[in-house]
Each structure stands twice: as structure tokens, then as C-alpha cells.
């Protein structure tokens, strides 16, 4: 079994629970993301009481914890540095959000190749539904790495059989198959700008 099996397929994925906290990274890593799905408020675990939120009140809370080395990399060593710091600079590395894209397999002219692409496309959809954009990006990277290592051997076999080497590549931008989630990124930019205003006052 390949070491990156969990990234290549979905059989080992577990979808996060509703009203749960998901962690990306470890407490010992340079940065740790903590995403909380808020569907209740005023929760008291001792009494077992809480207030269920209406759909328009539900929200997600995202926290990023930076280690000492990461803070020093950002040139923050004192409270004065923090007052001068432009929090919007954090967005690119820590608060950038993306939307997935999926291949239009109907446009692939070779029938047997189309079947393979369709199977991979369905697997990518399942990965996204189970593991989100982070999982999908990891899957895409794992497949691209695997394809790159095997491409030369596959082309050699096809040529020995007198078969053409098809090259169908999905359009990929700066972030692979992902597109910037502009509306959410704009809200994050506004929030970070207001945060800077609060610290500077």
C-alpha cells in the first residue's frame, strides 16, 4: 500500500462532525489552525444546557496559533511591533480560502480515457465532501506527484504498443484546481483590517 494512500483515495476519510472543532497541524508545529463549527451558544457542559442557533445565526470560528519562530519571522518581538503590524499581511499565508473545481469529463474525446477521468472526478468529489478543500488539495498533489513519477514509463509502454500518448490536462491556475473564494476572502480582509485598527488604538 502506498504511503500516500489516505490522500489518494477516500476510504480512510472521516467527515468532521457538526458542532465540532477541527484541527490542522499540531501543538508543536509552527502554526496550528482550529476551526469551530458553531451551531449552539451559551453551552454549559456541566448542566447539559445550550441555546440552539437558527440557521442565520450559525457560524464558523477560525483561530490560528503561531509559534515563537513564526512570530519572529513576522518581525514581532514587542507590543509596539504588534501595534505597527499590518494584520492584513496574514491573509495570504493563514486566512486564504478557495473553492474547488471539477473536470467536465464530457469534453474528453477518447472513451476509455473519459471513463478513467470520470472515475477520478467522482473520487475528487467524494474527497471534497469528506475532507474539504484541504483534503482535495492534498489528493491533487499526491496524484500529480504519482503521475509525474510514472509518466515516462507509461508513455514508453503506449508507444511500444503503437498507441498514441494522450495528453488531456485540466486548466490549472496559480493554486492548482482551486479558485479563490473572493466573497469570503474579502470579508476576512475587512476583519483583519478592523483588527489592526483595534490594536493600534
Helix and strand composition category: alpha+beta
Distance between the termini: 56 Å
Average predicted confidence as pLDDT: 82
Q: Return the string of H and E elements.
A: HEEEEEHHHEHEH
Enumerate the strands of the largest sheet in spatial order, edge to edge or round the barrel: 1-2-5
Q: What ranges have pLDDT less than 50 throughout 5 or more consecutive residues?
A: none
Radius of gyration: 22 Å
**Major sheet summary line:** 3 strands, antiparallel
Strand content: 15-25%
Which tags fit this structure?
7 strands, alpha+beta, 201 residues, extended, 3-stranded antiparallel beta sheet
State the gist of this model.
It is built from six helices and seven strands; from the N terminus they run H-E-E-E-E-E-H-H-H-E-H-E-H. The chain has helices at residues 5-8, 68-73, 79-84, 91-94, 111-160, 182-200; strands at 21-24, 31-38, 40-44, 49-52, 59-66, 98-99, 179-180.
List the helices and strands and how they pair.
Layout: H1 5-8, E1 21-24, E2 31-38, E3 40-44, E4 49-52, E5 59-66, H2 68-73, H3 79-84, H4 91-94, E6 98-99, H5 111-160, E7 179-180, H6 182-200
Antiparallel strand pairs: 1-2, 2-5, 3-4, 6-7
Structure explained in plain terms:
It is a single chain. This protein is about 45% helix and about 15% strand. It contains 6 helices and 7 strands; from the N terminus they run H-E-E-E-E-E-H-H-H-E-H-E-H. The protein has helices at about 5-10, 70-75, 80-85, 90-95, 110-160, 180-200, and strands at about 20-25, 30-40, 40-45, 50, 60-65, 100, 180. The strands form 3 sheets. It has a 3-stranded antiparallel β-sheet with strand order 1-2-5. A two-stranded antiparallel sheet has the order 3-4. A two-stranded antiparallel ribbon has the order 6-7.
